[in-house]
């Protein structure tokens, strides 16, 4: 049986709703992950203003509720991080003492090796999950963390389209008791040039809109990038990844509204979704992408099974170009804000900018001046 892990919106009602409608047969919900927002000494991979605020007391009460439902809670301390002075170390230790001693999670997700080592000095037994922010892509990179004794790794989102590397990660993981968990609703650009800078920004600031305009400008200029994204695994494609040895599928979307989650979970538990793929993705909610970008999820049947395996970038680009052009011709991919494309060979090229696309591209152009 494979497993789903869910983002935490600190809502009991949402969890009750999901569990009431999740009598699934061959996939279960095993974990919720989240963290406090606000004035904390270590970030958690999202802008604090984009996630639900909650007090320590309320978080502990929610943790008890989750435990009563037989679901684990993994606490996130997964921003890029390093120690700079002794006073900082004291603050971090106090925060970790609260997490480990009062909140009592079932595991910690961490991206910083230095912080993993610090945690291991405090607690030898707490399971550590290596965050996707650590950027592990290869088996050799995973092996360099084995002294930490991780129990799970969420690899770099590109691994969703790097099947050979993924197979080797699974092999090393099986040899050392490390499960592989894949992001499934993460639409970040494949080989995003701004990935590290984006996460570094989130560890220090609350505003990251500029990174989202860069990402989506690239997708609008080259629609194949919607399909190249390694962190997008359709509900129908989970079986494909299970055959590669994947046991955990991670639903990203802590910054989305809590009302969004039940629809997404239902789709993955049913391994089927008849609707707009964009609705399933944890895209920055301020863009409201699902309201004006449409990709018929069912029209992508067969896409992942025939994706190039040779790691040749030209072949991958050509393959995704053919698919996006085909979808556009058939009306299965379209922008509802008036944006239009022309087809040059097998490549979609922007022709007319609609209102939403123009706002994004104009914002990006001003930022680069």
The CATH homologous superfamily of the largest domain:
Copper homeostasis (CutC) domain
> Averaged pLDDT, please?
92
**What does the overall shape look like?**
globular
Cα-to-Cα separation, first versus last residue: 51 Å
Q: What percent strand? A: 5-15%
Written as H for each helix and E for each strand, in order along the chain, the element string is EHEHEHEHEHEHEHHHHEHEHEEEH
Structural class: alpha/beta
Brief write-up:
It is built from 13 helices and twelve strands.
Structure commentary:
The protein has 369 residues and is of the alpha/beta class. The protein folds into 2 domains: 1-188 and 230-273, Alpha-Beta Barrel (TIM Barrel); 192-228 and 274-369, no CATH class. The protein contains 13 helices and 12 strands. The protein has helices at 12-20, 56-68, 86-103, 113-122, 139-143, 163-176, 195-202, 209-221, 224-228, 238-242, 261-270, 313-329, 355-368, and strands at residues 2-7, 27-34, 72-77, 107-110, 128-130, 152-153, 179-183, 248-250, 293-295, 333-335, 340-344, 347-352. An 8-stranded parallel β-barrel has the order 1-2-3-4-5-6-7-8, surrounded by 4 helices. Helix 3 links the parallel strand 3 and strand 4 (107-110). Helix 1 packs parallel to helix 11 (261-270). The chain is globular, with a radius of gyration of 20 Å. 39% of the residues are buried. The mean pLDDT is 92.
